[in-house]
Design a protein that fits this description.
The structure is a single chain. With 453 residues, this protein is an alpha+beta fold. It contains seven helices and seven strands. Strands 1, 2, 3, 4, 5, 6 and 7 form a seven-stranded antiparallel beta sheet that branches. Strand 1 (23-25) and strand 2 form a beta hairpin. Helix 5 (197-325) runs parallel beside helix 7 (399-448). It is rod-shaped, with a radius of gyration of 73 Å. The termini are far apart.
């Protein structure tokens, strides 16, 4: 893959063509060129040797074992590669020896790369002491490996990315077999971005944290917006609830006012009914008094008839005795007995009428008692509803309404008490009449028994 430039005559020391131009590397400060390579006792190069000056393109040709690969190793050794990368176990394995058994304990080695930048030369030298210790120097001044590497970087040479500009034997086939991840790592080494890995990772982590924080803030913002919408709906619902609650209070007030109006109207109606029932009770009382007077008259008549019956029994006994003595007197006695029987029948009819009047009065009394109980229940319900409404504070009456309510309630109570008293008196009277009726029935039966024809 190496191109050939027009060559000049070969140099006696290296057998390589001389070049008026050196290798150039782009750099911010200017064009950096590898001008020559100075070697001393490195691998197959014995003593001090100089390769160069170099052209832009150079080719190294020769038979196997002539040291072509060692030229690549020189450059690699100088830019900082380890002995293991240069086919050696230790640095002493890189020191020239004429034969495998030659003693090289007192021999060292060194390789210098001479580069030019804007006409100024810089010498990078890496050497191996006889003790096998590596040393680094820049322009003849010994420096540390890190300082040496940093100086190379200023010329655009990255020792860790040597594969980007040093292609060893078999490296192309090895490169073709690398995975995508390995190739990416190689590109990072060549470009120098590998050294920025820590910074990149730190920035990537910071970017990830920033993105997570942004996502969190967006979620938080979204959550706050949702909470705001929820709170807005809750506020609207609360306002609607308060409006409905106010409307409910108004409707309840109207409802209880309507109930009060109904109660007041019912009280007026009950007062009218109470007056009508009182009048009916008075009329019934009059009828009861009439029935009672009739009953008393009947009792008197029954007593008179009883006495008369006793007298007739006596007369009957006397007449029987006379009949035994004289038959004609029996006819007059039979006529008198018939007359007594007719009066007994009349008295029985009067007693039946009195009993019917008593039953009617009893039925009327029960009706009045039921009406009184209904009036009392209605008044009690109205009073309970009024007290419950006032206890909850849902309805408030003014003083005039309370006074009117108290007056109506007192009148209704007084009327109910009077009606109840009248009913109680009638009940007592009816109960007192029941023994008299029973007694009248008994005596009437006694009258009827002896005079049966």
């Amino acid at each position: 893959s190496l191109a050939r430039q027009p060559r000049s005559s070969p140099t006696p020391s290296t057998g390589m063509p001389a070049a008026p131009d050196a290798l150039a590397f782009p750099n911010e400060a200017g064009a950096v060129r590898l001008d020559r390579i100075e070697i001393e006792n490195f691998k197959s190069y014995a003593g001090r040797q100089v390769v160069g000056p170099l052209m832009d393109m150079n080719a190294v040709v020769g038979p196997n074992g002539s040291g072509k690969s060692n030229l690549m190793d020189m450059i690699a050794f100088t830019v900082g590669l380890s002995s293991s990368d240069l086919r050696g176990k230790t640095l002493k394995d890189l020191v020239y020896r004429n034969s495998p058994d030659e003693d090289i304990s007192e021999r060292g080695a060194s390789v210098s790369l001479v580069v030019t930048c804007d006409g100024a030369e810089t010498r990078f030298t890496r050497s191996i002491t006889p003790a096998g210790v590596g040393k680094y120097s820049v322009n003849g001044k010994t420096v540390s490996a890190q300082a040496y590497d940093e100086k190379l970087k200023t010329f655009g040479v990255l020792s860790k990315a040597h594969n980007g500009f040093l292609v060893f034997q078999g490296y192309v086939s090895e490169l073709a077999q690398k995975s995508a991840k390995e190739l990416s790592k190689l590109f990072e080494q060549i470009s120098g971005s590998e050294e920025l890995t820590e910074e990149y990772d730190a920035l990537a982590a910071e970017k990830k944290r920033a993105e997570e924080e942004q996502i969190f803030n967006q979620q938080k913002k979204k959550g706050l917006a949702q909470e705001r919408a929820i709170m807005k709906r809750q506020k609207e619902e609360a306002e609607a609830y308060q409006a409905l609650l106010g409307r409910k209070r108004e409707l309840q007030q109207l409802q209880y006012l309507q109930k009060l109006y109904g109660i007041e109207h019912e009280i007026v109606t009950l007062r009218e009914q109470l007056g009508s029932e009182a009048a009916a009770l008075d009329a019934e009382s009059e009828r009861h008094a009439t029935a009672e007077a009739t009953l008393r008259a009947s009792e008197k008549e029954r007593a008179r008839l009883a006495r008369r019956a006793v007298d007739l029994e006596r007369q009957h006994a006397s007449l029987l005795q006379k009949v035994e003595k004289q038959n004609p007197g029996a006819i007059k006695l039979r006529e008198e007995i018939r007359h007594v029987d007719r009066r007994r029948a009349t008295q029985a009819k009067s007693l039946d009428k009195v009993e019917e009047a008593h039953k009617a009065a009893t039925k009327q009394q029960k009706g009045l008692e039921k009406q009184l109980a209904d009036i009392s229940d209605a008044l009690a319900r109205a009073t309970a509803e009024q007290q419950e409404a006032e206890s909850r504070g849902e309805v408030e009456m003014n003083k005039r309404q309370r006074d009117e309510y108290s007056r109506l309630k007192g009148e209704a109570g007084a009327k109910s008490a009077a009606l109840h008293e009248q009913l109680s008196a009638m009940t007592r009277e009816l109960r007192s009449d029941e023994p008299l009726l029973m007694q009248g029935r008994t005596k009437l039966d006694e009258l009827a028994a002896p005079h049966t024809p």
